């Protein structure tokens, strides 16, 4: 695994790359990719950082694991490659945007367009073995991505953190509430959404209102 990460992040994360846990993580990931089919492709593992540079971060969305089906994961949480069928959570995200903002449901499930506007689409675990959800958890990725959240909290201002579901909400302890905005709701997965914990959260219009208040350009969701 090459740590192919945009230079804007390096001054803040270099210390993590030099820690023993990160060397062990790199060795684990390399071995997994050699022995098994894993996602996303090796050159997309750090896609979230390469598409959203540090100084551009306005919004952070936290996912858990990459998708583990063929051709789905592209290194951005909740996002899939062009032309790939939209997974259930992504369908519910687009449905909420439709009702919240009146934006037509999009053909493409590739959220790179969000990343390039300053939305950091961060999974807590950046790799996974094919068809085995959670297979790369507790190997060091969470230590790294927690450090990323703390870095944004410490060195950026007025970022909107969207914490969807129980797992993401636990990350609240890493964020300085005095400097940033935190919106929480249920997860967009059908299990949570169909029980009334997702639809109607209006997180997309609320995020844009918060960005406008601090003179930042709203996101074209």
Give a quick precis of the structure.
The protein is 37% helix and 11% strand.
* Widest β-sheet, arrangement of strands: 3-2-5-6
The fraction of residues in strands falls at 5-15%
E-strand count = 6
Spatial shape: globular
Computed over alpha carbons, the radius of gyration is 17 Å
Largest sheet: 4 strands, parallel
Total helical elements: 9
What CATH architecture would you give?
3-Layer(aba) Sandwich
Structural class: alpha/beta
Mean pLDDT: 96
By CATH reckoning, the class would read Alpha Beta
Name the helicity range. 25-40%
- Note the run of SSEs as H and E: HHEHEHHEEHEHEHH
Task: Name the descriptors.
221 residues; alpha/beta; Uracil-DNA Glycosylase, subunit E; two-stranded antiparallel sheet; 9 helices; 6 strands; 37% helix; globular; Uracil-DNA glycosylase; UDG_fam1; Uracil-DNA_glycosylase-like_sf; Uracil-DNA_glycosylase-like
């Amino acid at each position: 695994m090459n740590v192919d990460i945009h230079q804007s992040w390096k001054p803040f994360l270099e210390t993590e790359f030099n820690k023993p846990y990160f060397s062990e993580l790199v060795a684990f990931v390399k071995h997994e990719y050699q022995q098994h089919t894993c996602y996303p492709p090796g050159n997309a593992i750090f896609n979230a950082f390469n598409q959203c540079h540090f100084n551009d971060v306005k919004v952070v969305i936290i996912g858990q694991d990459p998708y583990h089906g063929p051709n789905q994961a592209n290194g951005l949480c909740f996002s899939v490659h062009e032309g790939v069928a939209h997974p259930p959570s992504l369908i519910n995200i687009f449905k909420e945007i439709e009702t919240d903002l009146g934006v037509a449901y999009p053909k493409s499930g590739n959220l790179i367009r969000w990343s390039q506007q300053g939305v950091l689409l961060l999974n807590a675990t950046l790799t996974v073995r094919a068809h085995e959800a959670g297979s790369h958890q507790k190997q060091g990725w969470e230590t790294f991505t927690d450090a990323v959240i703390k870095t944004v909290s410490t060195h950026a201002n007025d970022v909107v953190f969207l914490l969807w579901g129980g797992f993401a909400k636990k990350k609240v302890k890493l964020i300085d509430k005095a400097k940033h905005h935190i919106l929480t709701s249920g997860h967009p997965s059908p299990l949570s959404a169909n029980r009334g914990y997702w639809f109607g959260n209006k997180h997309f219009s609320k995020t844009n209102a918060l960005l406008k208040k601090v003179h930042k350009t709203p996101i074209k969701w």
